[in-house]
Specification:
The chain is α+β, with helices and mostly antiparallel strands. Helices cover about 45% and strands about 15% of the residues. Helix 1 packs antiparallel against helix 3, helix 2 packs antiparallel against helix 4 and helix 4 crosses helix 5. The two termini are about 25 Å apart.
């Protein structure tokens, strides 16, 4: 699947940050995030804002080596003042997008991943914010929507991340093998939003396809994306699992990052 344009990713960082801000407005910042139980809602927001600032620093300084997070100007509010937290989140996203737009998508910079470019980071920050916005929405019991093209790209990027961490020796992802088994992701509300993940003796591969598989995960695209990113349980009544549900569980247990 072709990536979206650099400008679209930059626009979505701002739009998704605004959606996150709307979600936490009036919410209990001390509430535990069910999908990230080590964090409160405030800590989740701080994580997102610091990720934005970290990437902004990498891009602005044209870093060719990792930038230690403690070297990134932070200025996070020390209190639970919602207005201060909101303003801090706005400033971080805006500064990072300004740096990304000025740099364009082709500039070579350090990254932890398979591609060292500003384009990589623009895309990564979109999906970082999309997934953590889902965490916040689940915590605050609010609505959550993602445009189809971004939900599909979130799935694509997650497949790339899992393949990458497996290639560099992640022990959990190393178990994602097993010739003759496959997973079909099938969005019921978006044309061509289907993936076939096929396991082999040496790993896994994927492609866009509508084919019979060992197990199929069906449902609206956003919900399929949320299950795939472990933000919605596969036994939710919002999706349907057909076939060997244990294989889907096998994937979800091992497809992890960080």
């Amino acid at each position: 699947m072709s990536r979206l344009t650099h400008d679209r990713y930059c626009d979505e960082i701002i739009a998704r940050t605004d959606a996150l801000r709307a979600t936490i407005r009036g919410a209990d910042l001390g509430a535990t995030v069910p999908t990230c139980p080590d964090w409160t809602l405030r800590e989740l927001v701080l994580h997102v804002g610091r990720a934005h600032r970290w990437v902004g620093e990498i891009v602005r300084t044209r870093a060719t080596e990792v930038v230690p997070p403690e070297q990134v100007p932070d200025s996070a509010p020390g209190s639970d003042d919602p207005a201060a937290l909101d303003a801090w989140l706005v400033d971080g996203a805006a500064g990072t997008v300004e740096a990304l737009r000025a740099a364009g998508p082709e500039l070579k910079v350090w990254s932890w991943g398979w591609e060292g470019s500003t384009g990589f980071w623009a895309r990564r920050m979109v999906h970082e914010t999309i997934v953590h916005h889902a965490d916040a929405a689940l915590t605050a019991s609010t609505g959550y929507e993602v445009a189809p093209e971004f939900a599909a790209d979130t799935i694509e990027e997650w497949l790339e991340i899992v393949a990458f961490v497996r290639s560099v020796g992640d022990k959990r992802a190393a178990g994602l093998t097993g010739a003759g088994r496959s997973i079909h992701l099938h969005a019921t509300d978006a044309p061509d939003a289907e993936w076939l993940i096929e396991f082999g003796e040496d790993g896994f591969a994927w492609r866009r396809a509508h084919e019979k598989a060992t197990v199929a995960l069906r449902g609206p695209l956003t919900d399929v994306m949320l299950v795939f990113n472990r933000r919605l349980a596969p036994d939710s009544d919002r999706v349907e699992v057909l076939g060997d549900a244990e294989l889907l569980d096998f994937w979800l247990e091992r497809a992890v990052f960080g």
